[in-house]
Amino acid sequence: MPTTMTDSAKILIVDDKDSMRSLLHAAFVDKGYNLTTAADGRMAIDLIRETAYDVIITDLKMPRKDGLDVLRAAKAMDPDTKVIVVTAFGTMETAVEAMRLGASDFIAKPFPLEEIELKVEKLLGTRRGPEPGSDGSPRDGADRPIAGRSAHTQELLRLIRKIGPSKSSVLITGPTGTGKELVARALHQASPLRDNPFVALNCAALAPGVLESELFGHEKGAFTGATARRIGRFEQAHSGTLFLDEVGDIDAGVQTKLLRVLQEGEIERVGGLQPVRVDVRVIAATNRDLRKAIQDGHFREDFYYRLNVFSVQVQPLCNRTDDIPALVEHFLAKFSAETGKSLRGVDSAVLDVFMRYEWPGNVRELENVIERAAVLAEEDVITLAEIPQEMLFARRRETRGDSTAAPDTLADTLPHRTDQLESGMIKDALERFHWNKTKTADHLGIKRTTLQYKIKKFGLE
């Protein structure tokens, strides 16, 4: 049976392991949250159908129904529900898919409790410490800058300045996690509509019937459960901008209705008889190849051309590694403010790992890594000790800033990677203890003579 507390925000914890449910329950029990636990995905989905939750923390791999099923159910019932997906190393591709479906965040096992507590506080808006931006640090959301010095990012900023003032539709393409919504917000801020609403909707997270109601609204009695008129996203965005994320996943029937809105400038609420005029700029984004979807019969060609008046492509992070230092600096400032720490940078060995890593989750993955490191950091500089270990042994890029570089097969051997890791950790420890070899050896758990040998071996003197 699920266990429940009564108080403010409602949190649902879903995991098939008793120990993990107990651990997460204990982490939040003293914070005044209303907690419920479920032992598998099917139980969680039954609970979601009966109760609205503010945050759902769900394991990915479970019997009967998995975490993605829980995510889909939560978003179908309430698109504003925040979902954190917990995943083990080796299932990161599925975690990226979860983000595409509307997950607010994901966290890899094993994780420190402080990390998931911080994520929940962030989603609920109950962060400890100063508000982001109160000390001049960057804010998230609409005020967050597009950070980066790569040629691609500079061209992207130039394009935003050029097409932002237009009210024409824009189609933003690029892999998941590259910051397509950030580009959409920047376009809105660069337009005459900047003081009017910016409304965003993740289309992939909703079933066709739910999506239609979310977009166009519904009248009282339009369907079972429609106890009152509901204003849809188009009316909410009137005189402003509507951002349709993952537009490539929209059902063909809804595409037809959206095409009519773009052509006629009017909507009909579900169950309504009278058209409603709307004045909205539509910006859409997708990680899919829409031209191929058109050929396969999954996407309307006329709808594509209505959306694609202007086209903006956002490259994956591995193709613009020159942006990484600026992004790291931005995220460090953000999480320094949110954790109440004074983080001044990352160690050179960490930056080297970042520059060579493939970043399958793109900028979103980098943000998560920096957030994790900020929580774990004991000093004012992020070291290799705070970086997920799987990153240190992942396939790496051969040359910084070179998107076409092939992996260095000679450097892919386990001894070479182990030496790189060991050298970086020793260098970090030596710098932390100001080259006091006795303290460094004690910290690393090795003999002083061994430390001296390895300093010579790695040429650290």
**What is the annotated CATH architecture of the largest domain?**
3-Layer(aba) Sandwich
> What's the domain count?
3
Question: Which class do the helix and strand fractions yield?
Answer: alpha/beta
Query: Care to count the β-strands?
Result: 14
| CATH topology heading of the largest domain | Rossmann fold
Mean pLDDT: 83
CATH homologous superfamily of the largest domain - what is it? P-loop containing nucleotide triphosphate hydrolases
User: What share of the residues does DSSP label as strand, in percent?
Assistant: 5-15%
> Count of DSSP helices?
19
Strand ordering within the main sheet: 2-1-3-4-5
The Rg value, from CA coordinates, equals 24 Å
> Helix coverage percent of residues?
40-55%
Q: Residue ranges: pLDDT <50 for 5 or more in a row?
A: 1-7, 127-143, 398-412
Report how far apart the termini are: 61 Å
Instruction: Identify the CATH class of the largest domain.
Output: Alpha Beta
- Main pleated-sheet profile: 5 strands, parallel
* Shape category: globular
